[in-house]
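Can't paste images in this forum, so I'm doing it all in text. The chain is below; anyone willing to post the predicted structure tokens underneath?
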Amino acid sequence: MLLKKSLYRTAAVVGVWGVLQSAGAGTLQLQVQDKNGKPLPDAVVFLESAEAKAAAKPLKGVEVAQIARQFKPAVTVVTPGTAVLFPNNDTVRHHVYSFSPAKTFELKLYAGVPANPVVFDKVGVAVLGCNIHDNMVAWVLVVDTPHFGHTDAQGKLTLNDVPNGSYKLRTWHATLPTGAPAAEQAQAVGASPATVVVKLAGSSS
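Text version of the structure:
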């Protein structure tokens, strides 16, 4: 009887391992272009699915600093529930705010590091500003997936270890009109690497 139970357990482990192997993961190599067909740096590309949503967990250690009267980085991507710190590294005080539907908040005039981070718990784009310095602007993009990234200076991005399956591939850039949704197209991920070119209408490099 003990031998039979041991065999059953071994078979179960082998069965699970076989499922994991057959599920597999793939690679997407992306080239994002602006409306004129030029490479688009710092575009955000992400893959959505029910499985991706279930796998998304809050990120840790995320900061949007104020340096030389600018937000650094200008574009930040997080998953729902992520707490973001806004340290002020300038010698002047800042007043950080967002009135966006995705996140409305206000950090009144301060220096140093605020006592509490801001938790971004709703999917969408939050536009950040400073009430004191009108030239300061940044974006926090909240996505329901762990599969995302930014394009490089040549408009290129590689997403590795993406579980095989069917997704919505979405692309966003800060030059899109305010409130415009991320572009969307169907995308399958399989065992073989795939190369995808995205031309983002309404954007400019």
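The domain at 57-142 is CATH 2.60.40.420 (Immunoglobulin-like). The chain is about 15% helix and 45% strand.
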